Amino acid sequence: MTVLKTSLRSFFAHKWRMVLSAMAVVLSVAFVCGTLVFTATMNTTFDKLFSDAASNVMIAPAEEDGESTFDAAPANGVPETVPGGVVDEVAALDGVEQATGALYATSATAIGADNDNLGPATGAPTLVANWSEIEQRTMELVEGDEPQGPDQVLVDSDTADSNDLAVGDTVRLLTVFGDYEMTIVGIAEFTVTNPGAALFHTDLPTAREMLLGGADGFSEIYVDSDGSMSDEALRDAVAQAVGADAYKFQTADEYIEENQDEIGQVLSILQYVLLGFAGIALLVGIFLIVNTFSMLVAQRTREIGLMRAIGSSRRQVNRSVLIEALLLGLVGSVVGFGVGVGLAVGLMALMSAFGMNLSTEDLTVAWSVPVIGIVLGVAVTLLAAYIPARRAGKISPMAALRDAGMPGDVRAGRVRAVLGAVLTVAGLGLLAATASVDEAADGAGFLSLGVLFSLLGLILVGPALVGLVVRGLSAVLLRGFGPVGRLAERNALRNPRRTGATASALMIGLALVAGLSVVGSSMVASATEEIDESLGSDYIIQTSNFTQLPPQIVEAAEGVDGLASVTPALSVAAEVTAPDGTTEERNLAASPASFVNEMRLDAAEGDVAAAFEQGGMTIASDWAEENGVGIGDRLTVAFEDGESGELEVRAIINTGSAIVGTWFVGTDTVEAHVPAEAMPLPWTLFASAEEGTEEEARAALEAAMEPYPQVDVRDQAEFKELVQSQVGQLLNMVYGLLALAIIVAILGVVNTLALAVVERTREIGLMRAIGLSRRQLRRMIRLESVVIALFGALLGLGIGMAWGAAGQQLLALEGMPVLDIPWGTIIGVFIGSAVVGLLAALVPAFRAGRMNILNAIATD
Q1: Which of 242, 259, 272, 502 is the most buried (most CB within 10 A)?
Q2: Looking only at Cα atoms, what is the longest distance across the chain?
């Protein structure tokens, strides 16, 4: 009880010194809890959507194995369907109250009166469907009328609001079967969440004309029971009546579970990614907490010595420090949980801004969330405080009374330094080993262990490097500030372990930034080099969200004067069987023979041009070697939605040498095995201008594409910029998430300096008494902060570039051979670290400058 009282008294006496450590716990726990609440709310929201929409029994198209084949955006732009007559057949069965058909597809594009794409800015799909009772389960008409007739359409309220659409406005719906001008006659609002898509509803005949070319079919059939039998019994009865192997049959529970699993897989990836960054922030927070308790224990050395002198055992002193850590962890975790719920609400608001409306009524906070948050926060805090607590227990009463300071606090132990050096060298060796592997999968283990060992090694050896690196930085940056600069240097060198721990927190975040920058820059440089070496076409035509191109766009491009060639590139799924019987599924790229002029393929063997002729194909060199396949061998290729055939290998393409792939067949070959109605739509058009007419051809091509705002026409330079922007956007998202860890690291610098100011109160008073001005004092603290931040930056950026270089070695095996160090980013981050050091020192320097000289000297 005495230990508890002492711990509580000490905790509240030093509560303001622990605020920044508590902030690290709060931020990390908030990120974890916010992620869990947000993903749980997303699951709840979609569960409600599926539950409200489902009927007792669901019928969908199926293959022979009974698995559903329905795809709202199929390769040929036409959704798989169940024949319309099945609805009447099912409706007549005993136990069925009603059977309703629904037809929908996401292969359409909606275009406004101002020729703007009405699809969501997020790249989510545009869905066209028939308006039926099924839609009315999740939507209600709030303005206008239901659509009736071939030129009437109903739009969801979110799409109407974001595009300023109103009843009476005209829109165009572009599908594979035509370009339809429609008038908005109604607006419907979601009664559950908007899944983020833009929805356009027509009547059933119009939907069939637009999506199926007038064919009689439904995407799904919803069967409602009259309550006379269970859903399972009704499902079996329906299956027996219409053919158990012909379609896919599910009860409402099975339908909901399947959709939950599909959404859950996506949300799980998001959850794991966010929790990974939260884990990084927690790791950084450990350094902050270790430093805090180390410094607090050092400042209370005499107090602890007195406790030991009057009879407190080592265990009691140890327990006293851990109780303070427990209180810190509890308070920080509880606050972090509350902040995490607020963060989840903020993420929901952000999703709403992007078109997916999530209601706070669906906010899901499971009992496990606060438990996980509090247990995690407390465990991390206790773990971080354990080492300082053990050191406190080792303080002898006589040493404490002599104010000798904490044992082992002056320099890092030799064992730690040696172990850190060994781990660092071992980690760098493993990173270097990635250059010796033949396959990326084989090198992944080397990379992972290399990152882990090198990181742990630098953390351990960091204090031993303080003297060398800080003196080097000081010689360049601090010596010019005279005695103030030398004082700042000595302060940074005074406690290598503390300086090393503070810098290590910043090192982790910056190492990840540097590593990802190198990987991202190398990806862009490799893609750019590949484009320069292989792309021969003048223009690349794609949709803004990289969906398939309907026939109207292809025909418009082919009709442009001044173009020497227009080459569509499409993808077809197939099962390939090698001569030895090995079978695997592949997506084959298909194009006409003109493709060899648009893209220069790096062939290891054979004639690429011949491979695009009837009956030929190309394969990848690694697959050819692995399966013993050579030029002239014949492979059995079973085309999806088509027939099987034997194709001759006429060229072997070096693996990873082309951004468009290595497995190719000619369009004529695909057409010979796949029915015309099942032929995939192209993803890209490559176009080349006639010599000397590049500017005129570009202008004519853009004019031809003007009615299709979803289409972008790019030349090679613009295509390179697209690759760069895509990688840049991904990196920016990652950097944004890493900012949490860097913020925690900055808090660590602030905390270290603030506690160091308290620790050196008497020293500061004496320096002020002998003539050090307030301005010089503040400059000294700022310079100390800068050199600590730059020390962390040097270690982090150095090891991060090593990580990135090793990662690029594995990317080289996947066709990205260029190593590119983004020196501009690296130098910018290094300079930014100095700025961070300056900002982190503002408050501690200000407080030091305000000290009363006499009171500071009199401090015990």
Answers
A1: 502
A2: 102
From 409-413, 613-617, 736-740, the region with the lowest mean pLDDT:
409-413
- Backbone φ and ψ for 476, nearest 5 degrees, come out as -85, -40
Kindly state the tokens that stand for 447: 């990379």
pLDDT at 6 over 60: no
Residue 466's closest CA among 498, 500, 494, 490? Answer: 500
CA 128 to CA 152: how far, in whole Å?
A: 12
- CB-based contacts of 5-9 (< 8 A; 24+ apart in sequence): 6/307, 6/320, 7/319, 7/320, 7/321, 7/323, 7/324, 7/327, 8/323, 8/327
Cα within 13 Å of Cα(685), Cβ side: 26
The two structure tokens encoding residue 124: 């989510």
pLDDT > 70: percent of the chain: 90
Nearest CA to 620 among 575, 646, 658, 585? 658
Separation of CA 748 from chain center: 27
Residue with tokens 């695997």: 584
Q: Percent of the chain, pLDDT > 90?
A: 30
Helix, strand or coil for residue 411? coil
pLDDT band at 803 (very low <50, low <70, confident <90, very high): very high
Picking from 266, 289, 758, 343, the residue whose alpha carbon sits closest to that of residue 501 is 289
Nearest 5°: the CA angle 11, 15, 20 is 125
pLDDT tens digits, one per residue of 156-190: 998 998 899 999 999 999 999 999 999 999 999 98
The pLDDT of residue 591 is above 50: yes
End-to-end CA distance of the chain: 28
Contacts 24+ apart (CB under 8 A), 807-812: 807/434, 807/447, 807/515, 807/518, 807/519, 808/518, 808/519, 808/522, 809/434, 809/435, 809/443, 810/434, 810/437, 810/440, 810/443, 810/444, 810/447, 811/440, 811/519, 811/522, 811/523, 811/526, 812/526, 812/656
Write the pLDDT tens digit of every residue in 478-521. 888 888 888 888 888 888 888 888 888 888 889 989 999 999 89
Using only C-alpha atoms, the chain has a radius of gyration, in whole angstroms, of 34
CA dihedral 502, 505, 508, 509 (to 10 degrees): -120
Residue 575 half-sphere exposure, CB side, CA atoms within 13 Å? 9
**Residue 553: its pLDDT value, please?**
92
Q: Report pLDDT for 147.
A: 95
How many other C-beta atoms are found inside a 10 Å radius of the C-beta of residue 706? 12
Q: Tell me whether strands 539-543 and 711-715 are parallel, antiparallel or unpaired.
A: antiparallel
Question: pTM of this prediction?
Answer: 0.82
Judge contact between 767 and 477, C-beta under 8 A: no
Which residues face 541 on adjacent strands? 685, 713
Token pair, residue 373, equals 């948050």
DSSP-derived letter for residue 654 is: P
SS3 97: strand
DSSP string, 581-649: S-EEEEEEEEE-TTHHHHB---EEEE-HHHHTSTTEEEEEHHHHHHHT--TT-EEEEEETTS-EEEEEE
pLDDT in tens, 698-730: 999 999 999 999 899 999 889 888 888 888 888
9 vs 140, residue with greater confidence: 140
CA dist., res. 318 & res. 382, Å (int): 11
DSSP label of 547? -
Mean pLDDT across the chain, nearest whole number? 84
Q: Binning pLDDT at 50, 70 and 90, where does residue 306 land?
A: low
Question: Greater confidence, 679 or 354?
Answer: 679
Residue (of 473, 515, 295) closest to 833 by Cα position: 473
